[in-house]
TrEMBL record:
Taxonomy, superkingdom: Eukaryota
Ranges of biased composition (kind: Basic and acidic residues): 42-51
This protein's encoding gene: PPP1R21
Domain Protein phosphatase 1 regulatory subunit 21 N-terminal: 10-112
UniProt lineage: Eukaryota, Metazoa, Chordata, Craniata, Vertebrata
Protein name (Swiss-Prot/TrEMBL): Protein phosphatase 1 regulatory subunit 21
Subcellular location: Early endosome
UniProt keyword terms in alphabetical order: Coiled coil, Endosome, RNA-binding
Amino acid sequence: MAADLQAKYTKLALEYSKLRAQNQVLKKGVVDEQASSTSLKDQVKQREQSLRKVEQEMDSLTFRNQQLAKRVELLQEELSASEAKGKKSKNKGDSPSQQGLQQTQSVFDEDLQKKIQENERLHIQFYEADEQHRQQESQLKVQLEELERDHEQHQAIVDGLTSKYMDTIERLQSDKARLEVKSQTLEREAKECRARTEECQQQLRKCQSELNRHVKKSSIVIQEKVPFNDTKFSDYNSLNVPPHNRRHQLKARDVAGQALGFVQDIVAALLNFHSYTEQRVHIYPLDSSIEPISPLNQKFSQYLHENAAYVRPLEEGLVQLHQSITEDTVTVLETVGKLKDFADHFTSYTHFLQKILPYQLKSLEEECWTPLCTSSLTSKNQELQSDMKRITSLFDKLHSYISLLALPSVRQDSMPQSSSSAVFTQLAACLHSLHDAVKEMSTHYSQKASLEQELSTITQKLRTTNECLLASLGSLTSSTGKIATFFSNNLDFFTSSTGYSPRGGAGALNPLQAESMLGNKKKASDYMHAIRKPRPETVPYREALLHRRVLTSSTESREGLTQQVVASQEKIARLEQEKEHWLLEAQLGRVRLEKESQRIHDLETQLSSALGGGGSPAHSLGQAPGSPALTSLEDGEVEERGAGKEAMLSNSLVGMLTTTPTNEDVGDEESREQLIKTHYMARVGELTTQLQVSDSKAVNFHAECRALAKRLAIAEKSRETLTEEIKLANQNITRLQDELATTKRSYKEQLSMMSDHLCSMNETLSKQREEIDTLKLGSKGNSKLLKKSR
């Protein structure tokens, strides 16, 4: 951790030094640009001064030109006047004064011509100087604008780099402070670790001394007490328990489980393929004039119908092989006996494929004989024939390799380790070839199905069967590809040495002695578990003597209370039984009373009908002396009729006894048994209904509890996720607050720098304005002087 922090700090320091060097270069560039800008400004001032001088010269030349023009005008006027005078005095002849005037006029003409030429030349020079000045002025303005833009860009870059460097410096300072705190913490931890290391070294030295002493003691005991060395002879040594490689066992069980899953997928795909092939054999003829199924195809269909008897044992054999591989067993080729059973099942399936191969080829050949079979279908059938031959041969090769791998579990020294590695390698290559062959056959079958779709006589059943066949072939292709890739990825595990060998010697395990070795291993494990089992704690003898009387009295009192509780429970149970018995007897007595009342009522009815309108028998019987029983019966009948012949209820477990009066004359015993039976059956039905209702309520309650538990788990997970999100949000808020504070600080610094820059710019502008004002005043003074000189 300290090295990482030091490397990080070094990296940050290097970056800081690089940025600082870049900052120095940029500052130097800015200074150079400022110097060049100052020099260009000076050049502009000089050019302006030269421009003002040229303007002044221009003004003076213009003034001089105007003077010369006025003089020329005067001379032309004088010339015209002299010419007029000359015309008047022509006839008078030339006088000496006229000749002098003509000479003077010729001199003035020459002088005028020279002045005109000089004026033209000055005008041309002035125009050229003006154009050159304008061009230079425009070029200098463009350069000045470019320099100002460069200056602004450089200034922006400098400002950005300055802010960036300030942020970097602050971050580096904070990192430095944090790293200093961490370095101090790491130093403290290092000191503690050194202290613990010294303690551990001392303990290690003590342990080494103890172990050396124990080794010496054990070697002395072995030399004196162990005269027999069981690793000296290989026959005895093979019975020793080899060192247990638990990681190899876990890996072997995991590999076997994955292989079982792939084989189950292959078995399902093979079952579907054989079943749909059988359906296709039955429904393929597309012409109704052809016999639906030939005897050959019928035989082929019978064989295909038996495919499950050969395919299912493959899965069962591999399941048994996976179950035999546990964490406590020794898994090598010599001890895996279930691999031989799987090899036998694979042999039977290979024989089944060889048995149905001629029928498959003949069935495809018969399809080619049908009138509706086109040339393209014939070619696809021929390709499928070659694919089936290739797949059958590949399954035969797989059977050979699996049988070779199963040999060491039957006979020792049947195959060395190098040969088993080669067999595993060839098995993986054969699985890849099988995947390629199945994939090619799936492609050919798909092309054949698409060709059959174009036929006009194809049925919907055949179309569905073709789709199912293609789906099963796709599943078989995927499964074979997965198991081939699985074997290739785990080839190092299959070909590596397991490390299981007897102690003190080399060689493989004897499969005939593997069972005895595993039994010895189990006994050794049980023995070690027994001697490592902690003994229960015992009570000291003196303490046991002190508490013996208390324990005896408490035991006796507990036994007496137990006996009293048992006797009370028996008495309560007996009383409950008697209660139930008498309650049932009372209910039966009421039933008999009801029957007697009904019988008396019937007799009264018969008697009244026999007497034919005589007195009321009930009244006469009621007035007869010595008839209290009849009176009580009538009272009971009145009560029963007043209650509306309702059912009698009981609070016991027997429940409710319901009776309905009948007109049949049934004996007391039979009616009693029938009533009891009816009562108990009704009670059983009620209790069953209550039990069903209770069960349904319990199921609903259990479902609700599970739903609530799931909701609680989901709520707990959501609470944890929300807690994590809140923590992240708080961290983000803290980080954003820090960034906001840093941004505010940098903005404040930038604003202060900008204000300083604006102040400096204002000062430079005021200076330039003052210079311009002075120059304007100077130019005005010069123009006034020129006007005065004119």
